[in-house]
Design a protein that fits this description.
Elements: H1 2-21, E1 41-46, E2 54-57, E3 63-66, E4 70-73, H2 79-90, E5 99-111, E6 117-121, H3 127-133, E7 147-150, E8 153-156, E9 175-178, H4 183-186, H5 188-205
Parallel strand pairs: 5-9
Antiparallel strand pairs: 1-2, 1-5, 3-4, 5-6, 7-8, 7-9
Length: 207
Amino acid sequence: MRRVFFAGALLSALVFPVMVQGQAADPELPSTAQRIHPGDVIRLRIFREEEMSGEFPVDEGGVAVFPRIGEVTVVNETPESLEAKLVAQYSVFLRNPNIEVTVLRRVQVRGAVRNPGLYTVDPTVTVADVIALAGGAAPNGEQDKVRIIRGGRVLEARLSGSETLGEALIQSGDQLFVPERSWFTRNSGVIAAAVGGVISLIAIIIR
């Protein structure tokens, strides 16, 4: 009985740190409406008016500059409300303008990925899609625990591969950071084999 207790205690001492290293923090994502924010990019398509279509950035004051109509305050608008506003303004120049608005997020991908950098993406794409645009996680990357860096804060959350940027409440200017896997996680197989070997050796010694 004493031998079993001793071996079990040793196993717990060796394995417990590995379990702690593998735990993830609870999600801590602030709630925010999916409206247009400074730093977003407005993709404007006007049917049969290619010269007035394009992508237009939203400046720090929440203003975008569009062809013919100039500056328009777009901050806090939804794509639908901005479409209605632009239809009204372009109706001065065009007859029954057919307008489509898509809001793009500018997101920087950092950490253990193959091609870190700044990407302009549709908020309907998934977090996994954005990581894929960056070449995917590096061999030592922990893709299941993507961190969101926003305004100096680091928010850690388990983001599933099917979760869109909108569902994850990603904003323009955010950074998606893929951390490196811990040494314990990368070498879990080696650790398990070593623990098994140690226990076997102890069992032989204390017979």
